[in-house]
Design goal:
By secondary structure, the protein is an alpha/beta fold. It is built from six helices and five strands, in the order E-H-E-H-E-H-E-H-E-H-H. Helix 2 runs parallel beside helix 3.
Length: about 190
């Protein structure tokens, strides 16, 4: 399940955002009333989405962002602030996966930004799964080609393929160094003899 963390030093804001997110989205939602508390949570568990105030005592949301980026680089971040300051925007926009919203924007705008991030996460997950499937397919093809080359070498006495072919199928042979290939069968042995 997608995990979200809401951070602000104003409990009222955290609790209202928590209620709104709980009502509109199917997420595992956590809350923290300071960046220091949030950092302790971030160090213990992975978060997919962080909504944080920028200006907080002890540790700012930007400092929290630095730590979140270090620990969970794929985490999306929505920074909220009451201040329309260029230096905040500039620092926040140095990162990918970060959006900057003013607290005076409507809850609908915040929910729209959250939905946008959730859509991006879903697309990334699909791409990750596709890459895994392609990796599995490539491994299966590589194993088939390896078996084909070994059969040709052993049964037909065909010459070894060239270096490029060996590298492509991950055959652990170096043509510059002699190798002795020994093949045997244990099918005729009893399990105890094997």
């Amino acid at each position: 399940m997608t995990r979200m963390l809401i951070v602000d030093d104003e409990e009222r804001i955290v609790n209202s955002l928590y209620g709104l997110m709980e009502e509109r989205f199917d997420l595992e939602i956590h809350r923290a009333y300071s960046a220091v508390t949030a950092l302790a949570l971030v160090r213990r568990m992975r978060f997919d989405l962080l909504i944080s105030d920028i200006s907080m005592p002890q540790m700012s949301g930007l400092e929290l962002l630095d730590e979140v980026r270090r620990l969970w680089p794929r985490c999306y971040v929505l920074l909220l602030t009451a201040y329309d300051r260029f230096d905040y925007v500039y620092r926040a926009m140095k990162y990918d996966r970060v959006d900057y919203l003013l607290k005076i924007e409507s809850y609908d705008e915040i929910c729209r930004a959250v939905q946008e991030k959730l859509n991006l996460m879903a697309r990334e997950q699909e791409e990750d799964e596709k890459l895994l499937r392609l990796g599995d397919d490539l491994n299966a093809i590589s194993q088939s080609v390896l078996r084909y080359f070994l059969k040709r070498i052993i049964i037909q006495g065909a010459p070894l393929p060239d270096e490029k072919d060996l590298a492509g199928i991950r055959l652990p042979l170096d043509l510059a160094r002699p190798a002795l290939l020994v093949v045997g069968s244990l099918d005729t042995c009893s399990p105890a003899e094997r």
